[in-house]
């Protein structure tokens, strides 16, 4: 199911962190959701990433998510810890602890808010990669971090023995092609709408938000691309398009994914932690309009969709604040 030499998998779910109505992690729901997406075809799980609300999780919660993921997956899928920190020292300690907790790999986000130079970005990634024996995915998402990992920096980072891949949410396909031509790095699509285009130019897989709702179609796309069957991959891409739009367009993907999963009865609450809030009435209506267009998508049967806009409203203040700076 994975490429030779690929320690991450190909269908990776950027896992939401199910929570109770008061904003505490719902651990039984976490276990169920991980099992659901693996059963549907995921061979990698990214816990504590952006979609998992890493910014408002405590470090102990992040480490427990790794431990729970390893226990539930039982070897069926790789467990990758995402997130990180914009403080290099904190990131190093967090990833060291994640390795001890059993993570199979780490995904390091570009330092955010303090907007380091490329020299600072290079040093940050190198020092974190030096601190662990785990394989590393670089997370390039300038829309959230404020700074891209520039092409020249990626080439230099590719020489590090632990840095094996990039999650690309930058959408510069010419740069992706250029890096794939000049390095051995694997690429993972970090934009749900661009999964098939990324795969078409040589990407290894995806790290997707919509896969929380429907992982099986992404398994179909990956298997079809691996077999050189572009027609099947394209047909599945087209079927997924309205669901991707519902999840990724109107509110943050975390918010929409939880709203949809709750409406499907797959998690007990759609609650997110502040400053994220659930969709407003008009946003929920837009999401539901998109869902009305979803047809024949495995795992996404909306005939009994029962959204609860009141349950999703607002956001929660957890008992213990997070530690992400």
UniProtKB/TrEMBL annotation:
Assigned GO CC terms: cytosol
Entry-linked CDD domains: DHDPS
Active-site residue list: 139, 167
Coiled-coil spans in chain: none
PROSITE patterns in the record: DHDPS_2
Signal peptide region: none
Residues binding pyruvate, per UniProt: 51, 207
Family annotation (Pfam families): DHDPS
Broad class of enzyme this protein falls into: lyase
Pathway info: Amino-acid biosynthesis; L-lysine biosynthesis via DAP pathway; (S)-tetrahydrodipicolinate from L-aspartate: step 3/4
SUPFAM superfamilies reported in the protein's UniProt record: Aldolase
Site note Part of a proton relay during catalysis, residues: 50, 113
Transmembrane feature ranges: none
Catalytic activity: L-aspartate 4-semialdehyde + pyruvate = (2S,4S)-4-hydroxy-2,3,4,5-tetrahydrodipicolinate + H2O + H(+)
Localization, UniProt: Cytoplasm
Subunit structure: Homotetramer; dimer of dimers.
Name used for this protein in its record: 4-hydroxy-tetrahydrodipicolinate synthase
Organism: Microbacterium oxydans
Gene this protein is translated from: dapA_1
């Amino acid at each position: 199911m994975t490429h030779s030499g690929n320690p991450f998998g190909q269908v990776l779910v950027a896992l939401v962190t199910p929570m109770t109505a008061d904003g505490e992690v719902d651990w039984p729901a976490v276990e169920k959701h991980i099992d659901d997406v693996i059963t549907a075809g995921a061979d990698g799980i990214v816990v504590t990433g952006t979609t998992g609300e890493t910014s408002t999780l405590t470090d102990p919660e992040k480490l427990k998510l790794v431990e729970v993921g390893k226990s539930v997956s039982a070897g069926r899928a790789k467990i990758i810890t995402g997130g990180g920190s914009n403080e290099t020292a904190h990131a190093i300690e967090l990833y060291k602890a994640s390795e001890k907790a059993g993570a199979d790999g780490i995904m390091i986000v570009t330092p955010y808010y303090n907007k380091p130079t490329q020299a600072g970005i290079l040093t940050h990634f190198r020092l974190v990669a030096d601190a662990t024996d785990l394989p590393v995915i670089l997370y390039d998402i300038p829309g959230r971090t404020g700074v891209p990992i520039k092409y020249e920096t990626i080439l230099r980072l590719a020489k590090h023995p632990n840095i094996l891949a990039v999650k690309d949410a930058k959408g510069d396909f010419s740069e992706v092609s250029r890096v794939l031509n000049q390095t051995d790095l694997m690429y993972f699509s970090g934009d749900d709408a661009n999964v098939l285009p990324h795969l078409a130019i040589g990407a290894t897989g995806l790290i997707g938000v919509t896969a929380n709702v429907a992982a099986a179609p992404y398994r179909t796309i990956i298997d079809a691309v691996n077999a050189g069957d572009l027609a099947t991959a394209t047909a599945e891409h087209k079927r997924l398009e309205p669901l991707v739009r519902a999840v990724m367009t109107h509110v943050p993907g975390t918010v929409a994914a939880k709203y949809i999963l709750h409406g499907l009865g797959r998690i007990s609450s759609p609650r997110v932690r502040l400053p994220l809030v659930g969709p407003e009435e008009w946003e929920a209506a837009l999401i539901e309009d998109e869902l009305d267009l979803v047809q024949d998508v495995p795992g996404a049967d909306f005939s009994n969709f029962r959204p609860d806009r009141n349950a999703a409203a607002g956001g929660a203040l957890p008992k213990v604040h997070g530690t992400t700076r």
